[in-house]
Automatic annotation (TrEMBL):
Belongs to the metallo-beta-lactamase superfamily. Class-B beta-lactamase family. One of its GO terms (molecular function) is hydrolase activity. This is MBL fold metallo-hydrolase. InterPro entries: Metallo-B-lactamas (IPR001279), NDM-1-like (IPR050855), RibonucZ/Hydroxyglut_hydro (IPR036866). Pfam families: Lactamase_B.
Length: 309
């Protein structure tokens, strides 16, 4: 068995978070911190979720409204300006990133991708009001002297998840794809399209920016964080592919289960995942925070994608 506890097992203590994954401390009395990204752009975070706001001459453009930051965002904006929120950009439709948007319904212009509109119509959730402006490929949100370049690059995490680029501030926000210093959230952050997810990490790595706002974790990211994640997922793909090719069917299976194809396959896939985990642990076990928490999920997701996509 590997040093990493198998999926579903309860262990005493997960591996310590490496220093490289930690961010600036949050004042416990406030519960959030603001990071000045320059030229009127700010990140607000509780070191778990991240939103962004941009101050222009007449008001504020807010990007995302996570429920966990609902009480913090108005206070954070008030630390910087007394102007109102005039625009709200949705990164994507998931409620954990925009579920506090209702407070701005009818007050701010909401901008999102057309697939996000479709998903929100389907959800019919009053917590997530429908966008007023949608786009297909690209949209420039220019308000006063400030500018955000919104673009869509297809499905990866979920349809409608967009890139939000602040060129003047050299900042790129893409949510739920790259996790600076951390293992991606389970199952490649629930990527709905795994090949699309690989393509999007590579695309992010190729773009011109200095700061990545990823929607999660305790700090902003750099190009080096994107490169590290790209290297990890490429190693994951290689390890899962190698395990699929070198694992034999039926080893250790009770012969009485030989006529149960579900059991035969489960036995095979479990040993594929075990080999995948054991291959990756020596190199990656201490480099990415929470490697031990989700490496089984990542290996199961990867072997499935390699067999089916
Ligand atoms: Zn999401």
């Amino acid at each position: 068995m590997p040093d990493i506890a198998p999926i579903g097992s309860r262990i005493g203590k997960y591996m310590d978070i490496p220093e490289s994954a930690k961010g600036p401390a949050v004042d416990p009395a406030k519960g959030y911190r603001i990071q000045d990204l320059g030229k009127g752009l700010y990140m607000v975070t509780d070191n778990i979720y991240q939103a962004m706001f941009m101050v222009h001459e007449q008001g504020v453009i807010l990007v995302d409204a996570p429920p966990s930051l609902a009480a913090h965002i108005p206070k954070a904006i008030a630390e910087v300006t007394r102007k109102p929120v005039t625009h709200l950009v949705y990164s994507h439709a998931h409620i954990d990133h925009i579920g506090a948007a209702q407070a701005l319904a009818g007050k701010a212009t909401i901008v999102a991708h057309e697939e996000t509109l479709r998903l929100l119509q389907q959800a019919a959730d009053p917590k997530r009001p429908l966008p007023n402006i949608t786009f297909k490929d690209r949209y420039t949100l220019k308000v006063g002297g400030q500018r955000l370049e919104l673009s869509y690059h297809g499905n990866a995490h979920e349809p409608g998840n967009i890139f939000i680029h602040a060129p003047e501030q050299r900042t790129l926000m893409v949510v739920d794809v790259v996790f600076p210093g951390w293992m991606p959230w389970r199952r490649l952050a629930l990527a709905q399209d795994v090949p699309g997810y690989f393509a999007q990490v590579k695309l992010i790595e190729s773009l011109d920016f200095d700061v990545l706002v990823s929607g999660h974790v305790a700090r902003t990211g750099t190009k080096a964080d994107v490169t590290l994640q790209r290297e990890f997922i490429e190693d994951l793909k290689a390890a899962a592919g190698q395990a699929l090719g070198s694992t034999a069917l039926g080893v250790g299976l009770n012969p009485a289960d030989g006529s149960n194809p579900w059991a035969v396959f489960d036995n095979y896939i479990d040993r594929v995942a075990l080999q995948c985990v054991n291959t990756l642990t020596p190199k990656w076990g201490k480099r990415l925070a929470a490697f031990d928490v989700y490496i089984w999920d990542q290996c199961y997701t990867m072997e499935q994608s390699l067999r089916l996509d």
